[in-house]
Write a structure and sequence with these properties.
99 residues
């Protein structure tokens, strides 16, 4: 997995490539948690994400909770069909804004 984090005008864009699984999810969490509590909006751009496990979903849910609790908006964008089906089956697509 590779992540690129860009902050512009109060929005944190997190570009995620590869697999988000038990091994890589902590790296994603460590990368984004520094922005929690700052009232920023956060977007997970998953255009190059190939796979997400339950560990990755936990990071997505934690980020959603932290960002929205601080008054920001959270969105996940550009899901491929396989990853989108995981979000649908787990109910995440009903909780988290998808774009």
């Amino acid at each position: 997995m590779e992540i690129e984090i860009l902050k512009e005008n109060g929005t944190v864009m997190v570009n995620i490539s590869g697999r988000v699984d038990t091994v890589t999810a902590p790296e994603l969490e460590n990368g984004v948690k520094q922005y929690f509590g700052q009232g920023v909006d956060m977007v997970f751009n998953c255009a190059k994400m190939e796979y997400i496990s339950s560990s990755g979903l936990r990071v997505v849910l934690a980020a959603h909770k932290q960002v929205t609790a601080a008054g920001g908006k959270f969105m996940v964008t550009n899901l491929n069909a396989e990853v989108k089906s995981v979000f649908d089956l787990t109910g995440f697509s009903r909780i988290i804004a998808l774009g």
